[in-house]
Write a structure and sequence with these properties.
With 275 residues, this protein is an alpha+beta fold. It contains six helices and 14 strands. Strands 1, 2, 3, 4, 5, 6, 7 and 14 form an eight-stranded mixed sheet that branches. Strands 8, 9, 10, 11, 12 and 13 form a six-stranded antiparallel sheet that branches.
Length: 275
């Protein structure tokens, strides 16, 4: 005959074991959740040339893109290009994306703004030199050519200086349906001029083999130190310049994922004449 107290003891022991098991699990949970969570930061490719949208799509009236300014900021801290619908020239300096519109007004773009075409990189100086005599755009190209180890690589530029005068171009904002391509818009672009101004030219050099996907040769945009004047560099006479060059050997090419790009025909051909 089993004493009546035995089942009670079994029950008490079972409850005690259940309590101890639950307490142990809670302690383990606390220990797990109390450990710091380490989040790995994305690796930034410092010698990577980032390029969004093929140049000839841009030439053939693909004027709306799906790249946002916030995304661009993850791809570089200098850059040049154009915003969607050609609503301003893009000049990115030190990670700040400026917009120079057709009326000559310069502002900072919003993260949600869209871009139709852009080149960008995280700038790391590899080569530098100073220009202490008066120099124009053509002469600067020649001087830079002397300092390039090879013209078969890609290069980014930050060129700060004092300009006796400078001429910059913009683009007139377009609305769909788009009727004219860059072959018509660029020769008739708005032009802005300034005298006795300090600022920075940012831009890139692409080898001639780049073909139709990008601008071959030199391509520079300008932003003044006071951030009130900017655009695509057409001509200048500089008093002095500090030239910084970043050599790049990797190229990331991203196409727009839009209906306009999927349907475009590459009928028009157009490149800047000066390289």
């Amino acid at each position: 005959m089993i004493p009546k107290k035995i089942p009670f003891l079994f029950t008490a022991c079972a409850l005690l074991m259940l309590f101890l098991s639950s307490a142990c699990k809670q302690e383990q949970d606390v220990n797990v959740t109390s450990e710091p969570v380490v989040t790995e930061k994305p690796v930034v490719e410092r010698d990577l040339f980032y390029h969004y949208s093929i140049w000839y799509a841009f030439v053939n009236k693909v004027f709306e893109g799906d790249l946002t300014v916030s995304k661009l900021k993850t791809k570089g801290d200098i850059g040049l290009g154009s915003y969607t619908k050609l609503d301003g020239e893009l000049i990115m300096l030190d990670g700040v994306p400026y917009r120079a519109t057709e009326d000559g007004v310069v502002s900072i773009a919003d993260d949600a703004d869209k871009i139709v075409y852009v080149n960008a990189t995280f700038f790391d100086e590899d080569i530098s030199f100073k220009v202490t005599d008066s120099i124009n755009y053509d002469a600067l190209r020649g001087e830079i050519n002397k300092h390039l180890p090879t013209k078969n690589m890609f290069y980014g530029f930050k060129i700060h200086g004092t300009f006796k005068n400078i001429k910059c171009g913009g683009l007139n904002k377009q609305e769909p349906p788009f009727k004219e391509g860059l072959d018509v818009l660029i020769p008739n672009r708005p032009i802005f001029k300034a005298e006795n101004i300090e600022g920075t030219m940012v831009g890139f050099y692409c080898p001639q083999f780049i073909g139709d996907i990008n601008v071959a040769g030199y391509h520079l945009h300008f932003i003044s130190d006071d951030k009130k004047f900017g655009g695509h560099v057409m001509a200048f006479n500089a008093v002095s310049l500090d030239v910084s060059i970043d050599e790049m050997y990797e190229y990331q090419f991203v196409l727009p994922n839009t209906d306009a790009y999927r349907k475009v025909g590459f009928d028009k051909q157009f490149q800047y004449k000066k390289n």
